[in-house]
Amino acid sequence: MLNDKIKELVEKCKSKIAEVKETSATELQKIKSESLGKNSELANMMKCMRDLPGEERPKFGQMVNEARKLLEEAFAEAESKMQEKMLHDKLEKEKVDITLPCDMTFEQTRGHLHPVSLVTNEIMDIFKGLGFEVLEGPEIETDYYCFEALNIPKNHPARDMQDTFYITENILLRTHTSPNQVRTMKKKQPPIKMLCPGKVYRSDDDASHSPMFHQIEGLVVDKNITLCDLQGTLETFAKALFDEKTKTRFRPSFFPFTEPSVEVDLTCSNCGGTGCKLCKGTGWIEVLGAGMVNPKVLENCGIDSEKYTGYAFGMGLERIAMIKYGIPNIKLFFENDVRFLKQFR
Ligand code: PHE
Fold it and tell me: Residue 53 Cα, ligand 1 centroid: separation in angstroms?
């Protein structure tokens, strides 16, 4: 049993707790330390115990402890009620109104492939269907693989055709993907039927040239390969990429690594060959370079040119994409303006 003074103290404290605002945690904390802390009345009572006669002390101590327990319970209850109330208020405030119309500016947009990737994939699919395997190689090359093995000796005027970024005298950024064909021929004997896509670099910059662009080149080496095989393959390719009516035309040209060499034109995909702005009224559009692999190149790569012949071709992918999609400037591919890119979704 508590004596009256202690009872009164407990009641006083309980009514203080009851008066605390439901959300004032600091106030509750303050009352708690005033009521149970070192300088509280309860603590002082404990200190007074030594003035009591010895036989009364245990009983008194028990009473004070009982009062402390009651108060601790009262505080614990008040604290948990307060936490519950605060959580409830927070949830009320944070309620999401699912009836609000969604803000279209935050619409999640799905990514998609870049137009250059789209044509790359399409072209690779066509050639894969014709039995070509895709092989990739390094973008930083040596002079040997990029030029010398391809029959372009140092100081030869043909080097002017490929405005090269040199890193050192013998190391450079590849100007075409042909070095990868040299690497492949050095590694394996014919039959070879390969395609190499990738980035290439040239010091050239205007509406139709970019210092970095993409190429796909093809190489076929086997017994009895002729210019007719090249023509048939490229015609099949052109019809698959544009449409059935597309015609191909070979014009004589020069590349040190092919002999004979040709430039390949396709009938204009825009006007069908009657002449328009895109083909400058000629009805034809130049799309790639090609030819029969120069026997010197085969020999440089350890392939018997008496036994084997081959053809090779190479094209710029941005150029193909520009023709296919009617894009007037190569820079549009690299500016990453979503208004441009979105059109290829
Ligand atoms: N490698 C040549 C270039 O980039 C393209 C080409 C490849 C021409 C194969 C003929 C044969 O200019």
Answer: 114
Ligand 1, atom 12, residue with closest C-alpha? 176
Q: Which residue has the higher pLDDT, 3 or 314?
A: 314
Q: 297 pLDDT exceeds 60?
A: yes
Mean pLDDT for the stretch of residues 268-283: 89
Q: How far is the CA of 176 from the centre of ligand 1 (A)?
A: 7
CA of 107 to the centre of ligand 1 (A): 45
CB 265 within 8 A of CB 249: yes
DSSP track, 312-329: EEEEEHHHHHHHHHT-S-
Residues of the chain by 3-state class (helix, strand, coil), percent to 5: 45, 20, 35
pTM value surpassing 0.85: no
Cβ of residue 255 lying under 6 Å from some atom of ligand 1: yes
**DSSP label of 49:** G
**DSSP letters along 284-303, please?**
EEEEEEEEEEPHHHHHHTT-
Whether the CB of 179 sits within 6 Å of ligand 1: no
Q: How much distance in Å is there from the Cα of 268 to the middle of ligand 1? A: 21
Only one residue has tokens 């309980």, namely: 14
Name the residue at shortest CA distance from atom 10 of ligand 1: 290
How confident is the model at residue 146, as a pLDDT? 96
Minimal-distance CA residue to ligand 1 atom 9: 313
Of all residues in the chain, the percent with pLDDT exceeding 70 is 98
Q: Quote the CA–CA distance of 230 and 190 in Å, as a whole number.
A: 17
